[in-house]
Amino acid sequence: MTVALVLWIVCAIFAAHIAGKRGGTGWLWLIIGFFAGPLAVLLAAVLPLSPSKPSEAPSFMRSPVSALAIIGICGAFLLVLFFANSPSRPVAIAETRRVTYLVNGSSNRASLTYRNQSGGTEQNTVQLPWTLELRLSPGAFAYVSAQNQEDGGTVHASVYLGGVTLQEATSGSAYGIATASARVP
User: Fold this and answer.
1) Which H or E run contains 169?
2) End of a domain among 38, 59, 84?
3) Does a structural domain hold residue 90?
4) pLDDT, mean of residues 9-18
5) Is the entire prediction scored with pTM above 0.90?
6) Per the structure, how many domains does the chain have?
């Protein structure tokens, strides 16, 4: 922000200087420069400012190459202003959080569907109890679904964050499904 302010002030002073050399009112162009920045420099260099001397330009503006140089400088100021207002500190990589899936119950086997650490979906048939610990970023979706693979018994699915239950569900029917899901805070 301070870099942008300094460049804006420099543009205002430069616009006032150019306008003064071309017969314009320097203090007026200083005010215009505070509001218009690099655009004021360009306008002070290009617009006719004095009705008595409409074709007179400062010595550095008498050739097309000089005019292009001034336009290039204004463009460079705009680029610097654009990048000066962008975040000055690097974007931090989000910390991951320890998420645990737990599937247990009185049933011995369950068919699982769950979100893995890379964001994909996996399906497995497992012996109960079953746990999986993974690292997920804040905002990631944690999901585990367990289908009972027996005629009786229960399955219980849970999602934990650092030992704290985010969500849990139980199914007590034959081939029933228990699903637990949550966004990682």
Assistant:
1) strand 164-171
2) 84
3) no
4) 82
5) no
6) 2
How large is the average pLDDT for residues 96-120?
94
Q: Which pLDDT value is given to residue 91? A: 47
Q: Residue 65: what residue type?
A: V
Give the integer Cα–Cα distance in Å for 36 and 7.
Answer: 12
Name the maximum alpha-carbon separation found in the chain: 102
Length of the chain (residues): 185
Of residues 162 and 85, the one with the higher pLDDT is 162
Q: Which helix (H) or strand (E) holds 141?
A: strand 141-148
Same domain assignment for residues 129 and 156: yes
Query: Is residue 78's pLDDT more than 80?
Result: no
What are residue 126's phi and psi, to 5 degrees?
A: -130, 165
Give the 3-state secondary structure of residue 136: strand
Q: Quick check: is 91 in a domain? A: no
> Domain containing 153: what range?
97-183
Q: What is the CA radius of gyration of the chain?
A: 34
Strand intervals (E) in 20-140? 97-104, 109-115, 121-127, 130-136
From 40, 60, 84, give the residue that closes a domain. Answer: 84
Asked whether residue 89 is assigned to any structural domain, the reply reads no
Phi, psi angle pair for 16, to nearest 5°: -65, -40
Average per-residue pLDDT for the chain: 80
